Amino acid sequence: MTDKIDHTSQDEAPVFPSAEFAASASLNAEQYQAMYDRSMQDPEGFWGDMAQELHWFSPWSRVLDWQEPHAQWFVGARTNIAYNALDRNVNAGLGNKRAIVWEGEDGEVRTYTYSELLEQVKRAANALLNLGVVKGDRVTLYLPMIPEAAIAMLACARIGAIHSVVFGGFSVSALADRIGNAQSKVLITADASYRRGALVPLKGNADEAAALAPVLEKMLVVCRADCNAPMVAGRDVYWHDALERASSEHEAEPLDSEHPLFVLYTSGSTGKPKGVVHSTGGYMVGTYLTTKTVFDLKDDDLFWCTADVGWVTGHSYIVYGPLLNGASVLMYEGAPNHPDWGRFWDMVQRHKVSVLYTAPTAIRGFMRAGDAFPNRYDLSSLRLLGSVGEPINPEAWRWYERVIGGGRCPVVDTWWQTETGSILLTTLPGAFPAKPGTAGLPMFGVDPAIVTREGDEVEDGQGGLLVIRKPWPSMLRTVYGDDARYAKTYWGEIAGVYFAGDGARKDSDGYITVMGRVDDVLNVSGHRLGTMEIESALVGHASVSEAAVVGRPDELKGEAVVAFVLLKDGHTVDAAELRRHVSKQIGALARPDAIYVADALPKTRSGKIMRRFLRQVAAGQEISGDTSTLEDPSVLERLAATEAQ
Ligand code: WTA
Fold first, then answer.
1. Model-level pTM?
2. SS3 label, residue 387
3. Which of 157, 538, 575, 618 could form a disulfide with 645 if both were Cys (CB 3.0 to 4.6 A apart)?
């Protein structure tokens, strides 16, 4: 538990939407209030009505069956999220509308209409069936940000295979762990991907991971680069060959509403990353409704969520939410600063992006690069801006609103998690003023509270723990293969409520400010990393005997990784070698920014590491607080005198 829950800070002045935006917004404050009140008083009636906007092959017998900690939504109904995202929209006359506009880092642009995307997804579904994939099988995806990633996800959903997308920046061993945990027989990858002009050898990593994950039987390989990767006979098949051979006729499988749609691994405070499991029906309704209302979607919008499909934001707001709404999405392969920091703004201008959804870490990067980049481009197509992934500091919020939004676009800060499936806290644009740095009000059906460890509500303005008191449709259903961990982590910490793991406070208007994790999870550039994962990677090095990892506030990344390591007797190792080792074990995103090679760690007499003191050392602060429980307080002085590498 960190000191994050003790924060109190001054409220920012509210920023009101322009009259022009408010006039065309799909929901005003009264409508929100009426819908929200109904969602609290009659959740089943409310969600039943919302779900009716989508297609169900057969109806539910009950909207909700809640046996804490297990919820079933739309009980017994049959549906298919890929059918709802594609066939339903084509049948409604959107066949020629753009579904995905994709831009490669090298400037290549490809566009898929809803009809074209549907055809590709049908072929991919048949290709998977031809490989022997059946309903309920897990399929791992290790892909760049290319349209095939969305096509593969939707193809899995179409046949009831459970996709597990692994971010392309994860290492061989992280990929192998995830394949092994999900017991995936099929991996979909690409020969390579482009990142800042360089080729990332995805297929090479996939081959190495396959050697570590014997469960894997087949690999589908998309050609993104030169199509030159070595192929293993009998195991590897090119995606384009498999799709060409496959039929373009396919009927979507009617799936039980609770059929698992995907597993997505995310870091927790203990143990290995956990496979968060989402269902079909509830996730579908949650992503559909939040995309529609939070982003105030209009028919001619071009919606750009800049996340990677390897994270939940990409799942919910590049693929499922927007396509369920029949929206046009922009998808981009590469880095935000390639060839320079003007890339995003050049793309906004060329493609006429109207809704942009990005992360505070990117915004701070743009801010640092200077106004000259965005000022060079015509950003007048933008009408709404969103932020997600970590707390946004008011300064970055204002810069985003002023320089990118030209003072005309509402900025919606959105709080949610891999586990929540869709946005739970935000302000609806047009309906409410935003408060810079504050996520905002609960979405429909979301019943948040700020409580103590014991579960008692704290007074407004006081810091506490963020919990959700009612189940919601898009909530995670379990942790893959470990339901006990699910029950304990999310519903077992504080009796009767969902524990988010975040510290937060609520102001007298009901706006909630989320301050950050209260557990041993770091948020580095909007990516979740468990300190334990990095520690076990470090102690896996032949020269390291013990390691402790903490976060340090970082202007650009939000948090930076700082490691304290003890070496085995007689061993020496340089920091560069340890960084390489962590990259190899997890991925470059987990590489420590600073490494302290120490002779001891501050421990209590019972042997518990006092991370609070390590955080102070990492941040270069004076050591403060009660050191009397330490076995050897002089450790702190020695640490404070140690140079970080
Ligand atoms: C943090 C990303 C403050 C939070 C969708 C949460 C935020 C974790 C916000 C989930 C926000 C996300 N304001 N903090 N608007 N959005 N977070 O699972 O600590 O990658 O618990 O999901 O990010 O990260 P995850």
1. 0.96
2. strand
3. 575
